[in-house]
Each structure stands twice: as C-alpha cells, then as structure tokens.
Automatic annotation (TrEMBL), chain A:
<dbReference type="Pfam" id="PF01399">
    <property type="entry name" value="PCI"/>
</dbReference>
<dbReference type="InterPro" id="IPR000717">
    <property type="entry name" value="PCI_dom"/>
</dbReference>
<protein>
    <recommendedName>
        <fullName>CSN12-like protein</fullName>
    </recommendedName>
</protein>
<dbReference type="InterPro" id="IPR045114">
    <property type="entry name" value="Csn12-like"/>
</dbReference>
<dbReference type="InterPro" id="IPR036388">
    <property type="entry name" value="WH-like_DNA-bd_sf"/>
</dbReference>
<comment type="similarity">
    <text>Belongs to the CSN12 family.</text>
</comment>
<feature type="domain" description="PCI">
    <location>
        <begin position="207"/>
        <end position="388"/>
    </location>
</feature>
Automatic annotation (TrEMBL), chain B:
<protein>
    <submittedName>
        <fullName>SAC3 domain-containing protein 1</fullName>
    </submittedName>
</protein>
<dbReference type="Pfam" id="PF03399">
    <property type="entry name" value="SAC3_GANP"/>
</dbReference>
<feature type="domain" description="SAC3/GANP/THP3 conserved">
    <location>
        <begin position="12"/>
        <end position="275"/>
    </location>
</feature>
<dbReference type="InterPro" id="IPR045107">
    <property type="entry name" value="SAC3/GANP/THP3"/>
</dbReference>
<dbReference type="InterPro" id="IPR005062">
    <property type="entry name" value="SAC3/GANP/THP3_conserved"/>
</dbReference>
C-alpha cells in the first residue's frame, strides 16, 4: 500500500464529516489505523487548520500529536493528548442534537483512551506516588461522555445517543475493576438496567456487560445472579473467542460449583482451565486435605482473579460430601459425632473437636444440605430416612 | 495543585481562641481553672484545642494560620490522649465528646493539608486506637451518652484514610500496619470487601500472625463456623479482641437461628450453647477489659 500524504488524509476526514460517516472517521482516528504511523506529527496545527474545519480540527490535531508521542514511546504524553481529544469530542456530541452518527468515533477514541491510560499507568508505576491516579482521570473523562449520552432523552429512538451508554459503561467497568473501585459501577448498572434500550444494545456489548455485572454479583456474594449473568455471557460469547470464554469460566466454574454443579474434566480441558480439576475432585470427594493443599498452592492465582473467597466457601460443600461418605459407610441414620470428627481429623483438620464438628453439621442442617437434627445429649446426628443428603442443585 | 501548608504551631489558632472567648464558646476543659465561674471565662492557652467546624459556604478552612503544623498536631494528639483522657473531674462521656470533636478537627487539618507523612500515619493510628477502645468501653452506655453508630463512622473513616496512606507510602512502620489492617478486618467482620483488601496485601504482611489470624476469623465467620471464629478471637492481642468482641451480639443472634433449626429436641438449651461456644459477652470479660480503659 502506498504511503498516504497528510493532505490526502485530512481531506478524507473533512469529506467524511460532511457525509456524516461516523464509522469512517472512527477508523481514521483510531490508533490501529494502518497508516497512522506515517501521519504522526508533533506540530500538526497549521496543516490541519488548512484542511479541516472546526470542530473536527481539534480532534485531528490531538490525534496526530498522540500518534507522535506514541511513536516516541511515551504512553504518558500520548495519553494526555488522547484525553484532550475525548474532552473535545464530549463537547462535539453535546452540541449534536437529534443525531448519533458520531457515536462510533466516541467508541473508538474512548477505547483508545482507556488503553493508553493503562499504558501510562504502567509507565508511571515506578515514578508516580499515587497508583491509579491516571486511570481515575481517564474514568472521569469517560464519565463526561457518559453523562452526555445518558442525558440525551429528548431525541427520538433512532437518533438517541443513549444507545451509546453501554459501550461506555463497559469501558468504565474495565477501568474501575483495574483500580479496585467496583462500587462505583453501581449507579452505572442502575442506569443500564432502567434503560428502555436494555435489549437493543449490541450482543457483544451485552456479553461484556453481563460478564462484569456477573463478576460483581459474585463479589457481592449474590451467587444466583452471578450464575445467571455469567451463564448468559458464556453461552453467547463467540466460540472463537476462547480467551474470553476462559476468562468467564474463571468465575462461572466456582459459582456453579457452589450451587452444586460440578464441571466435567472435558469442559475444563477444552477451555484450558485445568487448575479447577483438582479442586472439583477435592470438593466432590470431600477430600479436605487436598482442598487445603490446593488453597495454599493456588493461593496467588485465586487472589489475583478475586475468587479466593468463593473458593474458600466451597469447603462447606466438601464437608457435606465427606459427611455423606461417613453416612454411607456406617449405613445408619444415627451418626455419632465422633465418627464425623474422626473423619475430619484424618483429613488434616487436626484441631477440630466434637463441638466444632457439631457446629459444622449444624450449619449444614441450617442450610438444608443435610436433613436431620443433632442430639447433643447423645452426641449423635440423626438424619432423615428419606434422602438425608439432598442433591445440592435441588436447594436453590 | 499545590498543597496548603499550615503555620499554626499551637494546639489552637490565636484567632479561634479570641473568637471563642468572645462568644463564650469555650469548653469547661479549656478555661483557666481560677476563673471558671466568671461570666466570660478566659482561655487557658495550654488547654484550649482547635474545635471542629463544618465546611460551609463563606467559610474558608484553608487559611494557613488556622492550620496546624505536623509537630503541633502531634502535640495536640499527645495532649488529648495522654492528659485529657485521664482527667477524672468530668464524667467520661463529656471527656469522650470533647476528645472526639477535637480529633475530628485534627483529621480535618490532616485532610486539608493533604498530609501523607509518617507523622500523619502516627496521628491517624492514635485516632483509630481511640475510637476502637471507645467503642468497646462505652458499649453498655445508653445512647444519650454514647452513640456507637457515630463512633463507628469515625472509626471506619479514619481506618480507610489510614489504609490508603499505608498503600501509598513505603512499607515504613509496617510493624504497626498489620495491627491496623487487622482492626479494619475485624471491625468489618465477614465483609467481602475488607477481606479482599487484606488478601491483596503483600505476602510478607499477610503472613504476620495477627493479620493471618484476623483473616482466618473473618473467613470462619463467613462460613458460619462461629465456634472457630470465637475461639480464634481469644488468641488475638487485647485491642483486636476488643474490636472483634463487639460482634458478639450479632454472632449470638446468628448462632441462635442456626441452632434452633439444627437441634430439634430441645436438649440443647440456648444458655448452655452460648456458654460452650464461648459466645456470651460476659460481664467477666468486660471487666477484664475495662481495667485497660483508654
């Protein structure tokens, strides 16, 4: 492909502006545009002003500068230019009434802004004293766009900018989860859930959205909601997006397990998440010793994904499965607490006494995972004659 | 944005002393002892402490002469938590209210000047300790004398600020950091957010016994293994145990609900249960702590 001259590029932009071709402008202002590297300029102002009229000129100037700094290898400076670009863009979309053709430009530039902010954040890690500062600023910038879109409630359905909300919300999710401020997502979720366009957002955006909302629900210990959102994301995610499917499974697998659905080895292998296979075995066999070992071995991985707490909760399921085994071995409806305690101790829970064993059993009964009652006087667990260990999936 | 740097080197800015003398807004703890009974008592410059004012329109909190320097703030803290606290002439709740208000002003000075130094860590640690102990000591006071909700709010706010400063500064004073990270964990027992925060701390911090123990307590609590949680609490250092023990009423309630379902034939009377589970917030225990009162 021949190298495009700057003049040609600028003319193209100006033409697209008049044709209201948002997609084309978006492509031209993207950092991934194949000619972008050739067009970078440190001082493009004069040239741009000759070809491009306001208000688009400001965007183009910032973009060319941004490219320049990026080629120089500085994310920080590039990010600053991109941030100027998005702020100017916010002003442009604010003045555009009853039209939303410019939204694709917003999507692209906001995406680039987030990626540059992430790069800048890494670059500043050694110098900067406050981690997360740049990403927070970027989030403010994105919020600026979001407000304009959300406030556009007078336009007709075809031309409303509110349709752009979900894209921004997803960007914001990504930023907030990077800086550990997921609680800031709450008003955004509310805005989307109450939006009349809830169903008309594009499928890809819906999947991303449900992934984040599902993850958040998991963090908030709302496992049924998490299951619903993450399942939707997993089932609708394109089958070639293996990386994304794998990411979803990091959360979906423990959530499902807690709800009583154990994944098969085949599925885990298919998506390259075998880390969970040992865990599945430990939990379904009630092998507490293996469970503790796995918690220690994969601690860093679990913490990094944010699933440590939910995986830790799986221990309750492991208890249930172990006690069920004891029940099957003894083949009696009156299980001595001592027997359960012996089982616990033999699997590495050496500091557990009969009182604590009762406490664990009591909780399982309370949750409906065991049908029966404890006779403290006789130190026995009396289980129901019918289905004393109901299947976990029947509980919720 | 450059930070404002305070220039006041005393516990209370001169301007405020004058104003409060004129408006008769001095606290009995702040006046000269000889003139206490006069209509317009004079301030005792050694005892008067800057009081807390809300941000409001037309009021600038940013005047450097009204903001205390770091040494002055440390001085204030020491005065409040060494001298005032041991004052026995006034009822305890009056002392508490006084200190609480003045500590709020201290925090305000810290925030307005955006201090993040080591000294600031020391200041906030003292404030946290004060509120943590107060929460325990005044647990049984009626609401008219002590509001646990407000106290908890101060505690939580200060803790969060402190934790933020820890994470932004180098791991200096990390010895104490584990204690305060543990307080946060125990104060918010079973809270997922708090636990995630603790899990994300550097491993060398997490491996320290207090923090490890606190995390295990919180995890046991979430898994409803209350017995284990309570047993582990007894291994905590005193201040931490005090913070954790404030959850006993909540734990008791949960235990009662679980037990009522699990023990059907009434052979496990509730009192008995609470005792074996060591859950009763017994007078005995309270007494043991009250010896260490503030």
């Amino acid at each position: 492909m021949t190298i495009m001259s700057l003049a040609h590029y600028l003319q193209m932009l100006e033409r697209c502006w008049h044709q209201q071709d948002g997609l084309k402008i978006a492509a031209l202002l993207s950092l991934r545009y194949d000619q972008a590297a050739n067009l970078a300029q440190e001082n493009p102002t004069g040239m741009v002003m000759r070809f491009v009229k306001p208000p688009l000129d400001e965007l183009v100037i910032a973009h060319l500068k941004c490219m320049h700094y990026l080629l120089m290898g500085s994310f920080t400076y590039a990010y600053k230019q991109q941030s100027v670009l998005v702020q100017n863009l916010t002003k442009i979309i604010q003045t555009q009434k009853e039209e939303n053709w410019f939204l694709p430009v917003m999507y692209t530039t906001c995406l680039d802004l987030r990626i540059l902010a992430q790069g800048a954040e890494k670059e500043q890690m050694s110098v900067n004293n406050k981690p997360g500062e740049i990403l927070e600023k970027a989030a403010e910038c994105l919020m600026g766009c979001f407000r304009v879109c959300a406030a556009d409630n007078r336009s007709s359905e075809e031309s409303t900018k509110r349709i752009g909300m979900l894209n921004l919300v997803n960007q914001l999710f990504k930023v907030y989860s990077k800086i550990n401020k997921l609680h800031l997502c709450k008003p955004l979720i509310r805005a989307i859930e109450s939006s009349p366009f809830k169903e008309s957002f594009s499928l890809s955006q819906q999947i991303t959205y449900r992934y984040y909302v599902g993850r958040k629900a998991m963090f908030d210990s709302d496992y049924n909601a998490a299951n619903e959102y993450l399942t939707y994301a997993f089932e609708n995610c394109h089958k070639d997006s293996r990386k994304n499917k794998r990411l979803i499974l990091f959360y979906l697998v423990p959530v499902k397990m807690l709800l009583g659905y154990m994944p098969s080895r085949k599925v885990l292998e298919k998506y390259d998440v075998q880390q969970f296979w040992d865990l599945v075995q430990a939990v379904s066999q009630g092998n507490l010793k293996l469970f503790d070992e796995l918690m220690e071995k994969h601690e860093q991985f679990f913490i990094k994904c944010g699933i440590y707490l939910i995986v830790d909760k799986l221990k309750i399921i492991a208890y249930r499965n172990l006690f069920r085994k004891v029940y099957l071995i003894l083949n009696t409806h009156q299980i001595p607490v001592d027997a359960l305690q012996t089982a616990l101790v033999s699997l590495g829970q050496t500091d557990v006494d009969t009182d604590e064993t009762e406490c664990i059993v009591a909780n399982l009964i309370y949750e409906g995972k065991i049908k029966g009652y404890i006779s403290h006087q006789h130190r026995k667990v009396v289980v129901s004659k019918q289905n004393p260990f109901p299947s976990l999936t029947s509980l919720t | 944005m450059s930070n404002i740097v305070g220039t006041c080197t005393t516990k209370c800015p001169a301007e405020e002393i004058k104003m409060r003398e004129r408006e008769r807004l001095l606290h009995p703890l702040e006046v000269q002892s000889s003139v206490e009974r006069q209509r317009c008592p004079k301030a005792d410059v050694n005892r008067v402490v800057k009081c807390h004012v809300r941000c409001a329109a037309g009021q600038s909190l940013q005047k450097p002469t009204n903001l205390r320097t770091v040494p002055a703030l440390l001085d204030t803290i020491n005065y409040l938590l060494d001298s005032v606290i041991t004052n026995t002439k006034f009822p305890q709740n009056v002392i508490y209210d006084f200190i609480c208000d003045r500590l709020m002003a201290v925090r305000q000075d810290v925030v307005v000047q955006n201090l993040v130094s080591l000294a600031c860590i020391r200041i906030l640690q003292s404030v946290v300790t004060f509120h943590a102990y107060a929460a325990f000591c005044f647990y049984k006071e009626p609401i008219s004398k002590f509001d646990p909700k407000l106290n908890n709010k101060h505690l939580q706010e200060t803790l969060k600020k402190l934790l933020k400063i820890y994470s932004e500064s180098d791991a200096a004073e990390s010895n104490k950091r584990t204690s305060f990270e543990s307080i946060y964990l125990l104060h918010n027992l079973g809270n997922a957010e708090a636990m995630r925060h603790a899990l994300q701390l550097p491993k060398n911090l997490r491996e320290r016994s207090e923090l490890k123990l606190s995390l295990e307590i919180s995890l046991s609590f979430v898994k409803r293994n209350y017995l284990r949680a309570c047993r582990l609490m007894e291994k905590l250092p005193l201040l931490l145990e005090a913070v954790a023990s404030l959850h006993f009423p909540r734990i008791n309630e949960d235990v009662a609900i679980v037990m009522s379902k699990a023990y059907r034939n009434n052979d496990y009377p509730l009192n008995n249960l609470l005792e074996t589970n060591n859950l009763a917030l017994s007078e005995r225990k309270l007494l043991r702590y009250s010896k260490y009162q503030l």
